[in-house]
Amino acid sequence: MNEKYYNDIIKNRVQRSMRREFPEADFAARHSALGTPAVERMTERFEIAAGAEQPHIFEGQQIVFMRTVGKLPDIFMKGEWRAIKVLHSVHENGYQSNYTPDYISSIKSGLLSRLEGADEHRARVIKAILDLAERYRKHAEEIGRPDVAEVLAQVPAKPARTLREALQFFRILHYSLWLEGDYHNTVGRFDLHFAPYYFADIAAGRLTKESALELIEDFFISFNIDSDMYSGIQQGDNGQSLMLGGLTAEGGECFSEFSELCLIASRNLRVIDPKINLRVNKNTPESLYELGTTLTAVGLGFPQYSNDDVVIPGLLELGYDYADAVNYSVAACWECIIPGCAMDVVNFGSLNLSLAVREAIVADLEKASDFESLMGSVRDNIEKRCSAMVESRKKPLWQMPSPVLEMLFSEIKYRNFGFHGAGIASAADQLAAVKKYVFDEKTVSPARLLEAIESNFENDPELLHLLRYEAPKMGNDEDEADGMACKVLEFYADALRDKRNIFGGRFRAGTGTALMYINDARNTPATADGRRDGESFGANYAPNLFSRISGPVSLVRSFSKPDLAKTINGGPFTVEFSADMFKNDEARSKTAKLVKHFIDRGGHQIQLNAVSLEDMLDAQVNPEAHRSLIVRVWGWSGYFVELDRCYQDHVIARRRYTV
User: Fold this and answer.
1) Cβ atoms < 10 Å from Cβ of 462
2) Which residue from 182, 253, 544, 596 has the highest number of Cβ atoms inside 10 Å of its Cβ?
3) Is residue 187 situated within a structural domain?
4) Is residue 643 classed as helix, strand or coil in its secondary structure?
5) What value does the mean pLDDT take over residues 163-186?
6) Would you say the C-alpha torsion 347, 653, 275, 485 has a positive or negative sign?
7) pLDDT at 8 (0 to 100)
8) Whole domain around residue 118: which residue ranges?
9) CA 281 to CA 310: how far, in whole Å?
10) For 569-588, what is each residue's pLDDT tens digit?
C-alpha cells in the first residue's frame, strides 16, 4: 500500500481542498430562457465541467483522475421540474441511476472506436473525455511521471492491453458518469472482466501477485477520492458496489486468484468503497466464506453474499434470458440487475408489509369467522396496495438524456420495475400473535387487541409485554411466525405477478427496505406484535428490533424458510454481531459456517455487521476519536460519525437486540 497516498486521501482528505465551483452559476437559468433541449444541456454541462477540471496526480498514485470541479448545477429550473412531474413519473432525482453499464466493451475497443457512428452529443462527450485524458497525460510528463503518461497515451483512446491500463480506463469511464450527473453507478462483475488482464500480466512478467495487490489497492482508493460528492441519502450511500465470483455462462466458477487479491486489498484498506459483494452457491467451498469473514471481522460491513442458486432461477421466472440472468450483478445496494442491457428501475416504491397487515387486522379482525378468513383480508389488502403502487407508475417515466451513460449500453432488453418490502418480521409476528392468542387459545379478545393497538398500548401494559416478548417471533425458528412470513411474501409476489409496467416489463417484489425501515415505520401506528407507534422496523430482511432471539442458528433457519426466488428484487438477511466474537480463528470459522448454512438452505442474500456497542456509543459523544468506525447501514457501509443520528441510533438498536 502507498501509505502517503492512502493518508492523503482517506485520513487527511486533502483532495477536498482542491475543489472549486462550476464556472457558470446561472447555467440552468440561461438554458431555461433559451428553451434548450435537455440532451443539449447535459452535453454542454459535461463539456464545461470536463474543460474546467484541473489535472492533479498524487505522489506515487497509479490510477489517476479526481474531481476538482465541485457540485454540478441542475440543468433545469424548479418550474421546469414541476412541469415535467405533471406529465411524468420521476425516479428519485430525475437523473439516471442504479445501473451497471457495459464498461468492458469500451475498455476492449477504445473510445476512438466509439466515435464511429456516434450522434452529435455522444461524439462531443467522447471528445471532452479524450481531451481531459490528454491534459492529464501532459501533466504527468511535466511532473516527471512517465509511467502515468505512458498509460494515458494508450487509454482511453485505444484499447487497454494491461491490467493497469484497464483499471485506468475504468476509472475514467466511472469518473465521467459522475461528472455527467448520473449517480449510483455500480461496478458490476469486476473479476469476470478484469482477471484476464491480471493473468496475462502475470504470465508476461509485467506483474507479480505483490505488485498486482498494490495496484488493486491504489485502484480501490480511487473510489474514495470523490465519493463525498456523490448523490445519496448519506455519505457512503453512493452505489459503488463491486461483484466478485459467481457462475459463468458456461457453468464454471468466476472466483480466482485475482478475486482473492481484491478481497485482501479491501481488507487491508478498510475503507467504505468499493462495497464488495460475493456471488456464491451450494458448491462454494467453506474457505471462500472464511476469507469473506476476514473482511467482516475488521468491521467493513461487507462482503454481502448473493446466492446464485436462488437468484438465477428467480430471474429466469421473471423472463430474463439465461445468458443475462447468469451474468447478474447488484445495483447500488442489493437489487439484482443485469449489466449492460437492463435499465430496470429497481427501487421505484416500497410496500409497507407491516402496515398492510395492520390495516387488515383493524378492518376485519372482529368480523373474521376464523384465522383463514383474516388471512384472506391480508391477501386482499396487499393486492390492493400493490395495485395502487402499480397505478401510480402509469405516467411516462422521465429519464434524463445521458450521452456518456448511453454510450455504455449497446442494447436495452429489460425495463422492469422493482419494489421494496418493509417490515416483514413485524407483519409475520402480528399474524402469529393474532392466530395464537385470538383464534387458537382465545385468551385475547379482538376488542381488547384492537383497543390496545389504537391506544399505543397505553392502557394495557400486560398485553404489550405478552405480544412484545412472549409471542412467537420470526427469528427463533418457530413455524408459527416463519410460516406467516412465507405467506405474506407469497401474497406480495402473487399480487405483482401478472402486472405490467408502461414498457411492458414486470414488477419485481423484494425484501429490501432502503431507508423505509425508518421512514415507513414512522408512519405506522402500533401493531399487534407489540411494536409501538413509530418504532422502527428491522433493516431489510431481519427480525424485529425488540425480538428476543435464541441464537444465530435459529435466525438462519427462520429467514431461509420463505421461497425468496419469488421476491427476487433483492433484500439481504441482515445480522448484527459483536465485534468481540471475531477475535479468534474459531469464532471467524463459525461465522463462515453460519453464512454457508444460510446459503445451503436456500437463503437469498446475507450481510453481517461486526460492531462494538461501546464504540458506537462513545462515537456519538466523541466523534473525532472514531472517524474510521464503519457500520453497515441498509445496503451500504458508511462511517458511523458521518451518519444522521436516526441511522446511528438504529444500528445501535440492532446491536442491542440481536445475536
Assistant:
1) 9
2) 544
3) no
4) coil
5) 96
6) negative
7) 92
8) 1-87+111-158
9) 9
10) 988 988 888 777 777 888 88
